[in-house]
Fold:
Amino acid sequence: MIRFLLLLFTIVFFTNCNKNNNDTIEKLKTEIQFIGGYRYFETPNIDIESLSQNTAKNLTDLLSKKELTASEVDSLGLELAITSLENNSLKIYNFGYDCGGTRGFITHPVVQWKNNQNKLFSYNFSKDINCSFYEIHQLNHPSKQLFLLIGQERGSGACLQNIVYCLEIKDDDLIVDNPFFINRPYINLCNVVFDFNQDTQELIGNEDYNGANNLIYAVKGQGKYSDSEKDNEKLIELLNGILFIEEELNVINLSFNGSRFIKINGY
Structure:
């Protein structure tokens, strides 16, 4: 009798959980589709950013409980970053809206990962950065779970921000502020196309259009990470002077040494 009651309770519990998840998915689908189709000139009085932030919170809550199927991802209108990871231990889901200004499309990313016991966790990454992340790579380390993300987000009419952001999964936590690039977890450069070689752990950046002042975008305009002039100068040196507008297009060559990125020819 006790076994029967336990079985019945389990069935009812999971049925209710599935129903709640399905209801949440339908609500999120409506919100994300509305956000994705937003046009400022049609509805200028709607606070689309507040709605997006609230939707990101709801998506984060769902992803802490459920892995989405491919059809659910499509149905929700989410963009899933391409990953080179063998075990899919980290996923990034993107959604957003066109703001109607020079920034163009503003993306809200949410991260989902598993710990060593395959328990699901999620993090509202849009609290830290707006970026459409489209690639995930593993950084080599003997004991730590380190990842490199590559994404893009328009900064202005003259600047397509190309962003490389490094994360660490530490048990149940996602560490988003490790100093992989001097004193910061990311680099953000205008009009620089990044490519990461998984085998050699080399990060190559090619400037394909020299139309914005990277000194402002990449060094002095990054909030708390820009407070130290000493670290700013180190970052300029690491990036090989690409931060200053010059006649010729620039190239960045970095490699991961197990804890941070250095110049391929040493730093």
Summary: The mean pLDDT is 87. Residues 2-36 form the longest helix (35 residues). The longest strand covers residues 145-156.
